[in-house]
């Protein structure tokens, strides 16, 4: 395997953006569950996110969701976050909750609906100017449920036209990242269902348009690391939404269902030049903690990514390349397995301690009394959650 010290030296480059909405209430299609200590404001969400970064050193930025996280003064919100040791990251748009978007937003055949959706994204860009954010992330619920319901080609044309206007509003150092999803909430066809559609739309826009890959947004059995490789090869992988799934878009803790998949993905990220501060690839969580406590759920998630990144960095690429060139199938697979089955947890605990972080962030959170304190302090008001 690669030298452990060399591998750990690169771990300092790992940064994982956490989403503000992960700290609010979430649930299933049938029920959104309330929990004690849930944030009521975006400031309280940021405070919880800052606690994750304080204990792990892995989550320096917080993604915002508009309009859920709207405030009157974004410069003040940026200053507030900085005071807690974190920055404001990706701005996520929302055109999937208003009645007007029932039949589509950027793809709608209704010109006034499209205008409203475009205006929302231009507003998000203005927010990016105030927060210093680099990425505008666009995920669309647009699609149809029945054959013949709408003109699929026409919807693609309208999407391209809408995205061009939004793209034109980007600042010099800003990007548009277009997320895709296999299905849901539309079931006959989704307007941006796969990486190919996202790639085609962003390629037409220009260099500041990239693809966002959500690990839960694929058909069962899809080789996600192949998609990662291909988008990196094409220079179009802009960001990740990390989560885990058993069946569909389950939005579970990343690595919970298939840690080996996460390992394989991180290997391709590293191998393809997508790892590190200057890589241009933003790593972010996109999860719903329906049953577990929110802050420990996010701590577990970023630690899972760190662990699989450490294992991926241990892959002996020289031995792997030799085995591949000689056609030694078992040797090549063995190189992968040797790295994956290495227990790096004790090494990571030492690595954290050497940087003034707790060896066990989960235990440190439980001992901190933070959850008890916010349970007591955050009584009354409207808890944040889906749509709030």
UniProtKB/TrEMBL annotation:
User: One Pfam annotation, family name?
Assistant: RhaA
Molecular function (Gene Ontology), one example: L-rhamnose isomerase activity
Q: Which UniProt keywords are listed?
A: Cytoplasm, Isomerase, Manganese, Metal-binding, Rhamnose metabolism
User: What EC number(s) has UniProt assigned to this enzyme?
Assistant: 5.3.1.14
Q: Give yes or no: UniProt keyword Transferase.
A: no
Superkingdom, taxonomy of origin? Bacteria
Q: What is this protein called?
A: L-rhamnose isomerase
Q: Which gene encodes it?
A: rhaI
